[in-house]
Design a protein that fits this description.
This is Penicillin-binding protein. It comes from Evansella alkalicola. Its main location: membrane. Keywords: Carboxypeptidase, Cell membrane, Cell shape, Cell wall biogenesis/degradation, Glycosyltransferase, Hydrolase, Membrane, Multifunctional enzyme, Peptidoglycan synthesis, Protease, Transferase. Helix content is about 45%, strand content about 10%. It is of the alpha+beta class. Among the domains are: about 110 residues, no CATH class; about 90 residues, Biosynthetic peptidoglycan transglycosylase-like (Penicillin binding protein transpeptidase fold, Orthogonal Bundle); about 60 residues, no CATH class; about 100 residues, no CATH class. A five-stranded mixed sheet has the order 2-1-5-11-12, covered by helices on one side. β6 and β7 form a beta hairpin. α10 packs antiparallel against α11. The longest helix has 21 residues. About 45% of the residues are buried.
């Protein structure tokens, strides 16, 4: 009895709603009130379907598809194949272009069937109602929800065109296995675009959304085929296909060809996620707000807002175009993973390769055998740089400040100041030597004395112009000449700074992201083109010469290889041999390499085997060829 009363009450309500809808002249005031209520409940302007974004390499090939749960590729109405529209409407809503959001005949027919079975077996829902259910309501089977669904559907039809509704519907429906929308379903199940499907394949996919669990092709393919045949019958009935197309489609062999999520080059992709956040922070003002926050709480609020904005963009179907060069990335990762001749437990490493001619980061590694979104040693590991900092903090600034050159004689004898007594490697003691000799053999006493002569604040006035994120006031002291910093530097920061030596003394702010566009190719974001002169061309030429001598005659000899072009670089070793560095350049590329352990410990055997210089050489040789 209660079921009968429920059906009767719903029929009465639907009848009243239909009467109000049609009697617009007599019931204008009431209808206006209804519209006002619906206007508040259904905010059509806020409809935005999450869509996967992609990261591409320097050749435009996809290297990473970005989505959390909903794998979706939105199609505009003009991009939707007519066969897809025909299949879905033939199966789900043949009167779609005639009704105003709900179909009284369909609902009445469903109610009668449900009345006979004393259950809710059929809903009589139109495409618009199904869309409403996905956008605003639940999938609960109740008469209250059904009535809300009808009212919302009516409102949606007032606000959107039929084509807009159909576009949303085809992009929102669920195809099981985390796939939403027809285009993503086509790529997932057949590994081709919807426009490439034949009639049988289209009908096969159109079968799934009616009950994604029941018609899941990966588990119940036979049931999917049965519904596909039913849809083909409906398409024939509606005239969407003729007898010949129908017969061909029934006989067509359907073979699933599952597409897999593209997600390669984890070291580079992980870094790009961070650089993208930095780009949005700069371009949309979040970075300034964070820097000028009044307190820690306000800073956290701005940081949270930035991350939410980044997530919003990553679910809007953007394309992040990068400078990634797959061959360079693979060879660099392989070289770091191998680290030939090493049997040191826990030895780690990271490398960055920059095309300094284009100001682009073309390769970066996060560590040996790196997994996506793990701790990234290429840009997150802050380590002491050892003597690798000397060219940036000491020698180039000193030459620039004093006008000296590589042949200028400097004092490399023992040095002592306020209890600080630096030693040279191996305990060597030297006297007056040409600057190039002190540089190529990395005499510590000479470097400290040069910094003392011009003063640490002067040296740091140059270093602070680079992108070293964790330099602090306490670093402005003499031990910094040998890499003694409070927090240290990253491989990325060091490599970025060294590109100045290959760009006539100018720092050009290399980046991995070329630009960010929407999927139609419209530009959304790009790093600003800028450069900063760090020192004169004359100073830079002297530095290039000394960096070259370090490889041909000095501490970097094991980095040398046969090439027709330029090679120059600098080693770095920290106290107790916790870190090994080599940063240098060829004509085209600047590469930085670090070796060490995550928990600092001695890696003396790696130093005696010259693993840092040899691994750098292997990376650069592959790039040179």
């Amino acid at each position: 009895m209660r079921g009968f009363l429920g059906f009767s009450f719903t029929l009465i309500l639907i009848g009243l709603f239909s009467f109000i809808f049609m009697e617009t002249t007599e019931e204008f005031y009431q209808l206006k009130t209804l519209h006002e209520v619906l206007d508040e409940a259904v905010e059509v302007s806020t409809i935005q379907l999450p869509e996967k974004s992609i990261i591409t390499d320097s050749n435009g090939n996809v290297v990473s598809e970005i989505y959390a749960v909903e794998n979706r590729i939105n199609l505009s109405y003009e991009e939707i194949p007519q066969t897809v529209i025909d299949a879905l409407l033939s199966a789900e809503d043949q009167s779609f272009f005639d009704h105003k959001g709900f179909d009284i005949k369909g609902i009445s027919r469903a109610l009668l069937i449900n009345l006979e079975s004393q259950s809710i077996e059929q809903g009589g829902s139109t495409v618009t109602q199904q869309l409403i259910r996905n956008l605003y309501l639940t999938h609960d089977q109740s008469y209250e929800r059904k009535l809300s669904e009808i009212l919302y559907a009516y409102q949606l039809e007032r606000e959107l065109t039929k084509e807009e509704i159909l576009e949303l519907y085809i992009n929102i429906i669920y195809f099981q296995n985390g796939v939403y929308g027809f285009e993503a379903a086509s790529l997932f199940y057949f590994n081709k675009f919807a426009k490439e499907l034949n009639v049988a394949e289209t009908a096969f996919l159109a079968a799934i959304p009616n009950n994604p669990t029941l018609y899941n092709p990966l588990k119940n393919e036979e049931l999917t085929h049965k519904r596909k045949e039913w849809i083909l019958d409906k398409m024939l009935e509606t005239g969407s296909i003729d007898e010949d197309d129908y017969s061909i489609a029934l006989e067509e062999h359907i073979e699933l060809n599952l597409g897999s999520r593209v997600d390669i080059y984890p070291d580079y992709v992980t870094y790009i996620h961070t650089e993208f956040e930095q780009l949005i922070g700069l371009r949309e003002g979040y970075t300034k707000r964070i820097e000028h926050a009044r307190d820690a709480e306000e800073k956290k609020t701005h940081q949270r807002d930035l991350k939410e904005r980044v997530e919003e963009l990553l679910t809007s179907g953007i394309v992040i175009e990068t400078a990634l060069q797959p061959t360079a990335q693979k060879s660099t990762v392989d070289a770091v993973n191998a680290i030939k001749g090493s049997n040191i437990q826990g030895l780690q490493g990271a490398s960055v390769v920059i095309d300094h001619a284009k100001n682009e980061i073309i390769a970066i590694t996060g560590g040996r055998n790196y997994q996506k979104f793990d701790f990234h040693r290429g840009y997150q590991a802050y380590r002491q740089p050892g003597s690798a900092i000397k060219p940036l903090l000491v020698f180039a600034p000193y030459i620039e400040e004093t006008g000296t050159n590589s042949r200028t004689v400097i004092d490399a004898s023992p040095f002592s100041r306020n209890g600080y007594n630096p030693r040279n490697a191996g305990g060597g003691v030297y006297g007056n030597v040409p600057m190039e000799t002190a540089f190529k053999h990395s005499y510590n006493t000479a470097a400290v004395r040069l910094l003392d002569t011009m003063s640490p604040p002067t040296g740091f006035s140059y270093l602070n112009e680079f992108e070293f994120d964790r330099l602090v006031e306490q670093d402005l002291n003499l031990p910094a000449a040998l890499g003694g910093l409070t927090h240290g530097v990253t491989v990325l920061e060091m490599t970025l700074a060294y590109t100045t030596f290959s760009n006539e003394g100018k720092y050009t702010f290399p980046r991995g992201i070329r630009q960010v566009t929407d999927k139609e190719g419209n530009l959304l974001y790009r790093w600003p083109d800028k450069e900063k002169r760090m020192w004169s061309e004359e100073t830079n030429q002297i530095m290039q010469q000394m960096l070259s001598l370090a490889i041909t005659e000095g501490t970097g000899r094991n980095a040398a290889f046969s090439t027709s072009g330029y090679l120059g670089g600098k080693t770095g070793t920290t106290n107790k041999v916790h870190d090994l560095w080599f940063v240098g350049a060829s004509n085209r590329y600047t590469t930085g390499l670090w070796l060490g352990k995550d928990q600092p410990a001695s890696i003396t055997s790696a130093s005696s085997q010259h693993l840092h210089t040899k691994t750098w050489r292997e990376i650069m040789m592959k790039l040179d060829h």
